[in-house]
Amino acid sequence: MASTVFERQAPPPSAVAHSLEKSRRGVFWLHDLGPRAQHPRLTADTQADLVVVGGGYCGLWTALLAKQRDPGRSVILLEAKTVGWAASGRNGGFVAASLTHGSSNGEARFPNELATLDRLGLENLDAIERTVRELGLDCHFERSGGLDVATEPYQVEWLREAAAADPSAQLVEGDALRALVDSPTYLAALRDAHTTALVHPAKLAVELARAAIEAGVEIFEDTRVTALDTDGDGVQVRTPDGSVRAENVALATNVYPSLLARNRLMTVPVYDYVLMTEPLTDAQLTSIGWSGREGIGDSANQFHYYRLSADNRILWGGYDAVYYPGGKVRSRYEKRPKSFERLAAHFLTTFPQLEDIRFSHRWAGAIDTCSRFCAFYGTARKGRVAYAAGFTGLGVGATRFAGDVMLDLLSGEPTERTELEMVKSLPIPFPPEPLATIGIQATRWSLDRADHNDGKRNLLLKAMDAVGLGFDS
Ligand SMILES: Cc1cc2nc3c(=O)[nH]c(=O)nc-3n(C[C@H](O)[C@H](O)[C@H](O)COP(=O)(O)OP(=O)(O)OC[C@H]3O[C@@H](n4cnc5c(N)ncnc54)[C@H](O)[C@@H]3O)c2cc1C
After folding, report:
1. Please, what's the b/e burial string for 193-210 (b: 16 or more CB within 10 A of its CB; e: otherwise)?
2. What does pLDDT average to over the chain?
């Protein structure tokens, strides 16, 4: 099998060890928040027109949009821990316009509505930018665009085809590419100026919470919802020390066990690992260029994503996407030295100019992977409960759209969004254990082989493509 550039040009183990030596385990973004607003725990029985479960972006957008649509509606948000502690506070901060986890996934799954989905996705990203500006959300929002880079010759062909199909994207090669970002591993890049923005993820979460409170939403933290009991005229939302009688409920619980039994096999947690460097010096920054501050991803199945922070650190994540047998979310899975060493090695291969770099933080998070790689939506309990989950690693932007979809569904009135095939259809559930582990490990192995074999997919991947099943991070 062919080797990848990361194997051919691997740095010495001592350089990797040096780069990680001083890194601390913890999420840079959460450490960087400083003092933040605390919200009380629910300790009484109360009522609301709408209860939102989950204080990540999906729940926060849903609560805020609900108040913006109807300021008279009473809205309560219940969060098991603290606002933004989970995926929303620890992600890469890429805000993508895509609602379908990229256009090739959208094309494969919803070919008849891809143009509509692309338009709605761009409108959603524009609306996020507008909200950030109008509500003064301090979250380091930068509409800096994206670069999809090829590090192997077969990927250049993929980018060429993508450039031919998309007039807004531009193929960049040779000196022009080096002038954008200087890495000896780059063979070509697809540049898109409009469809990606970057944020400070944890600040976006706490600022959305601030805006929601200012709009009149009540937020309770340290309040885990344990059950939803439905009767004729409402839903009783149960928590350990109190309950809320609600007309409607929106579930935004992401990768955590769904409060609806029917959704338990719809997603699996896949662990994604991240490193953050110390701030680059001016000389280090000059050595790599990157003055456009684009969000960058490479084109392999197992891909890296990376970006600059406001204080010129480099966040470097991805590649390993690890599913642990049993499919549970556990903080012990966040420690995986092998993944951090691999990430550091690939970083040093990509930017050999930064051989003296030190990583200051390392962390991981669980991604809510579903078999179609993009969110699914629906209602339960006679239309009183709506849900959205399955963002599969591309939910920073798409969660706002999901909030709109859930509110549309709860209103009972058809809209352009609720009529989408993407909204009406559901992904194929994962099989129960141990079949899930066997299937997912076989798929991971096949994706790794494809990355070592000019991107060629084996029979298992082709069969899964044919039935619309997949595994991704
Ligand atoms: C390492 C990593 C990097 C990523 N990078 C990117 C990226 O660059 N761009 C991108 O678009 N996406 C990225 N993602 C994915 C993105 O972060 C998620 O899709 C998005 O944050 C999902 O938001 P959410 O609100 O659905 O989930 P979460 O942020 O996970 O929030 C769900 C909340 O629900 C709460 N909850 C669960 N059950 C209950 C209950 N019973 N009662 C009360 N509360 C409950 C949880 O405590 C949690 O706070 C990344 C994810 C990870 C882990």
Report:
1. eebbbbbbbbbbbbbbbb
2. 95
In whole angstroms, give the CA distance from residue 221 to residue 84: 11
Kindly give the distance from the C-alpha atom of residue 252 to the centroid of ligand 1, in angstroms, as a whole number: 9
Instruction: Tell me the C-alpha to C-alpha distance, in Å, between residue 439 and each of 323, 329, 469.
Output: 11, 19, 11
Q: What is the pTM of this model?
A: 0.96
Q: Which of 196, 256, 331 to mutate to test the pocket of ligand 1 (most atoms within 8 A of CB)?
A: 256
Atom of ligand 1 nearest to the CA of 205: 29
Q: How far apart are CA 239 and CA 78, in angstroms?
A: 9
Which residues sit with their C-beta closer than 6 Å to ligand 1? 53-59, 78-81, 85-88, 90-94, 96, 224-225, 252-256, 259, 272, 274, 305, 317, 365-367, 391, 393-397, 399
What is the rounded distance in angstroms from the CA atom of residue 11 to the CA atom of residue 4? 14
Beta-strand relationship, 75-78 and 146-150: unpaired
Spacing, Cα 299 to ligand 1 middle (Å): 24
Q: Are 118 and 395 in contact (CB under 8 A)?
A: no
Query: Distance from the CA of 390 to the center of ligand 1, in angstroms?
Result: 10
Using pLDDT thresholds of 50, 70 and 90, give the confidence band for residue 390: very high
Determine the pLDDT at residue 471. Answer: 61
Q: Quick one: average pLDDT of 174-192?
A: 96
Lookup: tokens for 337 = 């030295």
Q: Select from 147, 198, 193 the least CA-distant residue to 168.
A: 193
